[in-house]
């Protein structure tokens, strides 16, 4: 199948590598001025992988998209609305878009498929690809399980059939809302985990996992999703990579923040915490962990005080 | 309050240290010939802590128990039945027993409170103390959250009121069955996690968490408990300590087993896997992770083949 990958960062370049490896015809787009794109163009490599010569690199979105049947988008979540809007200049009818990002629109709290479909003027199909997996592992043949979800079970099945391999086993998702909220929210839990590492309280990550999943399950249920989705691959299943891994950008960001060390750029979970607090207000659901993370990040609260307060507040039932 | 602690291993000695610290009058029993007991008697210390002189050490169970209102038991789970039976020589009416172990009776699949109450001839009360927490952290003032559960909400509340502190925040459990199964089962997940470490597939621990909780939740629900208990502190909340920690005996055991390295003694999860497979049969619930762990341990199956098969089997829905 002809596919396009829009975005040439770590995950975009991996999707191109993977789609090529399992036999698809791949065109990958990057911005002409992007450092990642220029490096790939120069020697077809980055810190994670080597692209085969069969992957076509282009800085023209039109060229990448026009003949593709399935289009993967892996750009920064907060840039999706503007990017999607610019795609409307093309004929997109009946193309399938797979969003491969984990985030929520910070200003509105909207899910990425909502943002995307609000902008699209043609009748397109949209799905998401979420779940755990390190690029470094996949390129070393260490397999993992991931999830495809959409509102259309046939579409989900078609994408799973096109993408599954010995390296990635895809499960069918059945709750697009729950998987989008969950995939985004795990980055906030990752920041909280990093803060626990930063203050020397790593053993509270157990409580963080139990209370973090509970908090997100409550939100998803109130929003009309299935609370059990949070305990699936898209959220809980991504905790190894996010809460415990040295590679997790969000965890490292939280750790550096708590230690008052410099960090290169804001982690995606910073915007996601803002988005979740909007949903917390809209749906009347308390999100104490998100609140604590945002309060440390935005109001300069002391991370140790916030996190210890969170877990050590007066006794109560586990069910609340 | 006068309390007794029966067992002087890592966890028993910690309970004595902790109960003394928060103001209880503590008698701790150990077998006269036990290495742990002899070392504590000699210099009141072990690898984890120093006991205050206020903790009374004795090798007479009667002496420890007779004047105690609340009795904590922290011995090997498989020895509980015989030990409980021998307690019947004493007057125990209305005493409260708190079981501080994580296991199931291997031969029967029975929960430890079932085993205990089957043996008791006096009308006693029984509860459990489960959840995460490293002794090393608690003695360094790093707090954590744990769970007390029983079939009697007033009893649960009374124990929580007697034990809570700035170091341990206790939540009230509401599902004794779910918390007992969950606390025991986490050791099997710990062995599976160690096997993944041993074969170099640590990144599958994310999928292990998502699929492991799902498997145990299904069992608890079928047995009449609340499936959400598995996602609380007693099971999922203990994954940091069990699935990721260098200190976890079960994880280390699984890793050594997969690498064919020698190990000192069987981990508790070995017996628990057998017990869970009995429950699997009795209740007609498939437990593929327990099955795989037991098959590697008992039938000499290849851990890589078993575990990869487990996670990479043909595509299906997340809900199954």
Protein architecture, described:
The structure is a homodimer of 320-residue chains. The first copy, chain A, has 320 residues and is α/β, with parallel strands linked by helices. Chain A has two domains: 171 residues, Rossmann fold, CATH 3.40.50.720; 128 residues, Orthogonal Bundle (N-(1-d-carboxylethyl)-l-norvaline Dehydrogenase, domain 2), CATH 1.10.1040.10. The first copy, chain A, is built from 14 helices and eight strands. In chain A, strands 3-2-1-4-5-6-7-8 form an eight-stranded mixed β-sheet, sandwiched between helices. In chain A, strand 5, helix 5 and strand 6 form a beta-alpha-beta unit. Chain A is globular. The model of chain A has no long low-confidence stretch (mean pLDDT 95). The interface between A and B is large, with 56 and 56 residues.
Write the layout of secondary structure elements.
Two copies of one chain form a homodimer.
Chain A: E1 2-6, H1 10-21, E2 25-29, H2 35-43, E3 56-58, H3 61-66, E4 70-73, H4 80-87, E5 96-99, H5 112-119, E6 125-130, H6 135-138, E7 144-149, H7 153-163, E8 168-172, H8 176-198, H9 205-222, H10 239-244, H11 249-258, H12 268-283, H13 288-299, H14 303-312
Helix pairs in contact in A: 4-5, 8-9, 8-11, 8-12, 8-13, 12-13, 13-14
Catalytic activity (chains A, B): sn-glycerol 3-phosphate + NADP(+) = dihydroxyacetone phosphate + NADPH + H(+)
Family (chains A, B): Belongs to the NAD-dependent glycerol-3-phosphate dehydrogenase family.
EC number (chains A, B): 1.1.1.94
